[in-house]
Specification:
alpha/beta; Rossmann fold; 5-stranded parallel beta sheet; two-stranded antiparallel ribbon; 7 helices
């Protein structure tokens, strides 16, 4: 339905069959620093996920054609999208629906109507976790990490900005013996 809307920040693919819902979710995510791509159904969602490789997928369950559970299973079945975190955002909140969502491969399940702050918090957490997974290019000499913009950053700074980790520095026994005999 639409291309990403902001130049920086994690990309969220929001999927719903109701344009009104996407008109609420898209601006909310954009105001909170996310790039947003919108899809009006399951088949379009899968195509956009393959093309854009979003950091998080927000997915409704009740949609004509492919429902959200089917979309989630299809994303999990394709190696190119298997690792994408899928959060169900749906009015279907029975225990059976929630369990079906997790069995389909979701990482989280948010009921509609949702609280803005809670949705943003959940999307943020899963986007951060997604960015901490995968391949990191590390300089063999100085141990700096290449970031998204082809910049280089100290490993401890990179991880601290993307997680709740706190660092304390020390010397391992090998370096202590080598540099401070």
């Amino acid at each position: 339905m639409s291309p990403p809307t902001a130049p920086h920040g994690p990309l969220v693919l929001a999927v719903d069959d109701e344009p009104r819902n996407l008109q609420v979710i898209g601006p909310l995510l954009s105001r909170n620093g996310f790039r947003v791509s919108l899809a009006l159904g399951g088949a379009r969602a899968i195509a956009l996920a393959l093309e854009a490789q979003p950091d998080v997928v927000l997915l409704d369950v009740s949609m004509p054609g492919m429902d959200g559970f089917e979309v989630c299973r299809a994303l999990r079945a394709d190696l190119r999208t298997a690792g994408l975190p899928v959060i169900f955002l749906t009015a279907r909140t029975s225990r059976d629906d929630v369990l079906a969502g997790f069995r389909a491969g979701a990482v989280d399940y948010v009921p509609k109507p949702f609280h803005d702050e809670e949705l943003i918090a959940r999307v943020s957490v899963h986007a951060q976790l997604r960015r901490l997974r995968g391949l990191l290019v590390v300089c063999s000499h100085c141990q700096h990490i290449r970031t998204d913009g082809d910049q280089w950053e100290r490993l401890d700074h990179y991880v601290a900005r993307r997680s709740d980790a706190t660092f304390s520095h020390g010397l391992c026994p090998t370096c202590e013996a080598k540099y401070y005999p």
